[in-house]
Design goal:
single chain, mainly beta, 6-stranded antiparallel β-sheet, 3-stranded antiparallel β-sheet, globular, dUTPase_trimeric, EC 3.5.4.30, dCTP deaminase activity, dUTPase-like_sf
């Protein structure tokens, strides 16, 4: 089951943490998260799964920043989230989708126990101007049945900034 907006509010501070939290951003079954003022882009045209890929930071000025098609932008939410009893899920908002802006292209499925800022995979269909602080995506929560373990991976847990892919670490682990 998906939690209603009212249930999200009831669970604030006990089963769910969203910081900062603004009750005006609560939807019938989700909560709108906003875009932080910095983006990352990869420097190289060809990315390699087995090695760290160099990135460059872009700051979103007050007048906005125009994104160009064919480029992946990594952003992050301005809000820190944590849950230890629900499955967090992230999706773009329909208003951003109707501008041809794809938010969190893949990997919207979170793990119980994830704590941190959400890195957003942003891609646009046509040029679009974005702004820091805009409500860009929505988080919603599923209940879970059965026993479960909390997410404890060190790869993305407790992040403070935008996280480029750390897949290369999987190649460094002993798979014996």
């Amino acid at each position: 089951m998906i939690l209603s907006g009212r249930e999200i509010v009831r669970e604030m501070g006990s089963g769910i943490v969203i910081d900062p939290f603004d009750e005006r951003r609560v939807n019938p079954n989700s909560y709108n998260l906003s875009l932080h003022g910095e983006l990352l882009v990869y420097r190289d045209e060809v990315l390699n799964m087995k090695t760290p890929n160099a990135t460059e930071a872009l700051h979103i000025p007050p007048e906005g920043l125009t994104l160009t098609p064919g480029r992946l932008y990594l952003g992050r939410t301005a809000e820190y989230t944590r849950t230890e009893k629900y499955i967090p899920m992230l999706e773009g908002r329909s208003s951003t989708g109707r501008l041809g802006l794809c938010i969190h292209v893949t990997a919207g499925f979170g793990d119980i126990g994830f704590a941190g800022y959400w890195t957003l995979e942003i891609f646009c269909i046509q040029p679009v101007r974005i702004y820091a602080g805009v409500e860009i995506c929505q988080i919603y929560y599923h209940t879970i049945a059965g026993e479960y373990d909390l997410y404890k991976s060190g790869k993305y847990q407790n992040n403070r900034g935008i996280q480029p892919s750390l897949m290369y670490r999987e190649f460094q682990q002993d798979r014996g």
